[in-house]
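ok so for the tutorial part 2 we go from a plain amino acid sequence to predicted structure tokens. step 1 is just haveing the sequence, like this:
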Amino acid sequence: MNVAGKRVCILTGSGGTLGTAFCQHFSGSYQIVAVWCRRPPVIASQEQYVIDPLDLQHGLIENSNPVFTIRANIINPEATTRVVDEVIKKFGRIDLIIHAAAFRFWAPILDGDALLDSLGRHFAVNVQAPLRLTVEAARRFWANRSPENRAANRNVITVSSIAGLRVFPGYGQSAYSASKAALNILTKHMASELEPLGIRVNALAPDTFPHIVSMERVMAGLLRLDQGSSTGKILALEAASEILI
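step 2 — the prediction. this is what the tokens look like for a chain of 245 residues:
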């Protein structure tokens, strides 16, 4: 598949565990715009390529489908606008957004002030940033394109957590879980409000990966949500089950 035929996917948190896995699994089938802030994805891009130190003369297949990287702090409104503008200028469209960037800090609520101090960042990264990027894409590209959006099955996937659906006592997840619960209900509201534009919005809520839920199941869940027709749903992945809520 050539670049022109690939779905253009903005992926935040591309340097994290999930982001890196997505780039490795799907760079051949998506044109991935890998957005990162602190850690770039370890994958071929317009800025780096992979080499075999024992055989420098031959190219590697890993370099055949480079991602396009953009460094941006997505809690910054100006950075979010720049990301959307760069993607539209370079690729001409946005077909999928995966919000994989996340912040987590776990501590008991009575154990000093660190948890309280983390609350703002939890909501800035896990709730505000996904909303801001989605709104920018809707305003700058998806607006007034509802037939085209539906035909292209354009959609948004927020990466939540099973911790946003239930309480796991003893882990100190209160602030993190609250932000993921907020992301879940935000996802449903975005689905409702973007439906007239022909944009679907769903959430993927896995248990701890890759230890409890395999990375293969997480990747399959993302693919299912992108290729499917559901909207306003949460796909919860647990060790022995999965359910669309």
